[in-house]
């Protein structure tokens, strides 16, 4: 019995993705090509591996057994590549990173420039993914590293088989429209004001809920927006106040919004998630480690820029 390991990878992908269509999408193949490879694998082992009697193809008991072995082989190959990388001074290979827009703009772009100079043979691929979808892709092996956020007042979610790597703690700021006669100067001034609120399950949405509960007011959520550019646009146009992270303010032109002097709103933590290494050395994948290193360097530079933004302007000479 001669089994082509490349076809085992396809079987493994069908098993963990739950069907031929999703496996084909993940492997960048057509569904027809995946079906042909599965049929050839069935001829090689002499057993039916896929039950095609239903609308969606599922694995037979024999298919599930072979898929489990395929998963072990895939893990062993990943571990072998990681271990072999330790014997070369020049790291190489692809690495797929999932992140959300502000991190791509302010951390990843800078980090990739450094990575290209330091490790030119590493090939990064960026996917704009965030939230549970990104974590699921990491779990399934569709990406190698996820940059995510969480409100620091919330307990870190349990993520079995994953490692967390802190990158940056991003302070929240409350912004107001520049055209308002009275700019809020304290949390007490926020009661009754209209809000351009964040989505409830995202860090800024959680920060607003926590702030309101702590200070006993009910925020009037006139708009609920997920992304920061439209949030800042609505604030600039006078539609309400908003909580945004400092990172989102780096490219805002002076005068577009008023950054209030209300502090103590909290922070969000930006961190990288990777799958737990199963190598014999127990160390993280060197390529992923190199990406985390340059992300931390980019975060240090961003912290300096944010500090300059927070510094009050020097008085003009009279």
Automatic annotation (TrEMBL):
GO terms for molecular function: DNA-binding transcription factor activity; transcription cis-regulatory region binding. Residues 3-60 form the HTH lysR-type domain. Keywords: DNA-binding, Transcription, Transcription regulation. Pfam families: HTH_1, LysR_substrate. InterPro entries: ArsR-like_HTH, LysR_HTH_N, LysR_subst-bd, WH-like_DNA-bd_sf, WH_DNA-bd_sf. Gene3D superfamilies: Periplasmic binding protein-like II, Winged helix-like DNA-binding domain superfamily/Winged helix DNA-binding domain. Belongs to the LysR transcriptional regulatory family. This is LysR family transcriptional regulator. It comes from Planotetraspora phitsanulokensis.
């Amino acid at each position: 019995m001669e089994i082509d390991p490349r076809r085992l990878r396809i079987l493994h992908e069908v098993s963990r993705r739950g069907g031929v269509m999703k496996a084909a999408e993940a492997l960048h193949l057509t569904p027809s090509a995946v079906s042909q490879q599965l049929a050839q694998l069935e001829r090689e082992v002499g057993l039916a591996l896929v039950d095609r009697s239903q609308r969606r193809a599922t694995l037979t008991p024999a298919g599930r057994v072979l898929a489990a072995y395929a998963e072990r082989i895939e893990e062993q190959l990943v571990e072998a590549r990681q271990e072999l990388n330790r014997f070369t001074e020049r790291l190489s290979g692809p690495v797929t990173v999932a992140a959300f827009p502000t991190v791509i703009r302010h951390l990843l772009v800078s980090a990739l420039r450094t990575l290209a100079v330091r490790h030119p043979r590493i090939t990064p691929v960026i996917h704009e993914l965030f939230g549970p979808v990104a974590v699921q892709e990491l779990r399934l092996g569709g990406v190698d590293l996820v940059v995510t956020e969480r409100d620091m007042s919330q307990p870190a979610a349990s993520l079995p088989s994953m490692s967390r790597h802190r990158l940056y703690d991003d302070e929240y700021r409350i912004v107001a429209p520049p055209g308002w006669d009275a700019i809020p100067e304290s949390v007490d001034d926020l009661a009754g004001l209209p809000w351009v609120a964040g989505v409830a399950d995202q860090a800024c949405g959680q920060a607003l809920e926590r702030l309101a509960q702590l200070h006993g007011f009910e925020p009037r959520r006139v708009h609920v927006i997920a992304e920061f550019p439209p949030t800042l646009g609505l604030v600039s146009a006078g539609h309400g106040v908003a909580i945004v992270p400092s990172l989102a303010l780096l490219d805002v032109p002076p005068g577009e919004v008023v950054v209030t002097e209300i502090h103590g709103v909290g922070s969000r933590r930006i961190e990288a998630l990777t799958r737990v290494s199963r190598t014999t050395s127990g160390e993280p994948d060197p390529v992923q480690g190199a990406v985390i290193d340059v992300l931390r360097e980019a975060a240090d530079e961003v912290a300096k820029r944010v500090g300059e933004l927070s510094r009050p302007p020097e008085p003009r000479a009279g």
